[in-house]
Amino acid sequence: MAFIGRTLAGLSFVAALTVQAKGYEADWESLNERPCPQWWSDAKFGIFIHWGLFSVPAFAPTGSTSVYDCYAEHYGNPQRWEKIKAFPEYHAKHHSGKSYSDFAAEFTAENFQPDKWASLIKRSGARYVVLTSKHHEGFALWPSAYTPYFNSMMMGAKRDLCGELSKAIKAAGLHMGFYYSLLEWRHPHYNKADIGRFVDEVNLPQLKELVMAYRPDIVGTDGEWDYPWQVWRGPEFLSWLYNESPVKDTVVVNDRWGKGMRGKCGDHYTTEYGGLDGKTNDVDAVLASHPWEECRGIGHSFGYNRFETVDDYMTNERCIESLAEKCSRGGNLLLNIGPDATGLIPVIMQERLLAIGRWLSVNGEAIYGTTAWENRPSTMPQDRVYYTKKDPEHNGMLAWQRTLPEERHHNLNIVSNLPPVDLIRIADNANRFDLADVPNANALYRAKDDRIHHRRKDLPRRYSTCGESRTGLDRHVGELRQLRWIPVDRRNLQSL
Fold first, then answer.
1. Residues β-bridged to residue 400
2. Is the Cβ–Cβ distance between 242 and 32 less than 8 Å?
3. Measured between alpha carbons, how far is 363 from 333 in angstroms, rounded to an integer?
């Protein structure tokens, strides 16, 4: 009877979706007219969280020439086992006799503290979070009525992980979102003969269940590549989402709603480790006219891989430059972390997030709320100088300079909203600068309590700043070494 009830509920929901709302109709031409909510375009930086049963074995081979072969979250993919023998060999050695679903009992989340996760993410400077509510394995991180026995409330953790994290993230003042996999490797109805039943009884009702239960600001689908959009029937769901759902004005969706649809639909397009769909050669041309986001891990895997070493992870410097580079092209960065099965975030991932946060606390003005500058040079990656734009009149410049061999001395330099001459300068990571290093510096200004204070060049040779206080110059000074930049209002200088 329970199964029949769930089936009827799913069919009832699907029937409701077929009634087109007065706003956006259930077709791509209408849906693609919806603008991407501005909050998302301004946020620029989000944190992706891959967490699931794959966090128990936490294994994938490292060092492959294909990044997809390094995905620990694909541990349960039967096709991957046929292609890459390291998976079945590892399983036979360490988990002999276990089926993949047996990992549910070991997915305990015993150390999961959502408030601490939220605090860490807020300190990273990220403005939104996307959690894998259900990955390709089919295990739901919430008590879904449509997978009543294979979810985190019934097995392993015995907690509503989606609900707990959603509450903590929103309490921290951030936007919460969910990733949702359309495909399931092991569901008995996920096959060509029964796919219509699977969509009716699992996908569509689960998507609505997530929205109604947690009010997410992001719904990102994946695993769409097996069937065209007509099978997945995404437009029906999106018409309801945009017209009737409680998040209709704020929700953002991606472009993974059917085979061949990446870069053709959704509020934003999504690249993964730089690629769009594996077929498009000129990715930049596709991204130029539409909001977009790059998703990638700090390492090679999204899910936690216990065998990745420091050589597999991006350095602090590389993480920051990746953010700057994506923003300079008008995109967002969704940077992934992969907690272990107990709910602990690896220390190296925490350290990377905190390093980004420290940098954004000084330089965020050149990141948040920016767009791509249409006249940016094509040599940005080679020059390691990145440009952003914040309003029609001024451009910003992110200048990355390698001045010392040790990474701890590498500073990403910023000029945001660059006027013709006037700049404000932030000290280097020693919180001090040397005027002798600044060519043509006639006067120094220090911003404090929203006022600009004048200091002459005949002050002591080394001038120490206080924390994040701002200092500036009254003329364009050419090349600077190891300095960060933010804008100064010319009128403030003239009023001195």
1. 412
2. no
3. 16
Prediction pTM value: 0.81
Residue 128 C-alpha from the chain's centroid: 8
Buried b (16+ CB within 10 A) or exposed e, 237-269: bbbbbbeebebbebbbbbbbbbbebbbbbbbbb
Residue type, 222: D
pLDDT digits (tens, 9 = 90+) for 271-325: 999 998 877 778 989 999 999 999 999 999 999 999 999 999 999 999 999 999 9
Tokens, residue 461: 């040779």
Residue type, 80: R
- At 281, list the tokens: 């050669």
Number of CB atoms found within 10 A of residue 405's CB: 7
Tokens of 406: 């040790």
- DSSP class of residue 350? H
Neighbours of 88 (CB within 10 A): 12
Structure tokens, 493? 């200088």
State pLDDT tens for residues 474-490: 222 222 222 333 333 33
Q: How many helices (H) and strands (E) does the chain have?
A: 16, 18
> What is the residue type of 404?
L
C-alpha torsion sign, points 154, 245, 45, 376:
positive
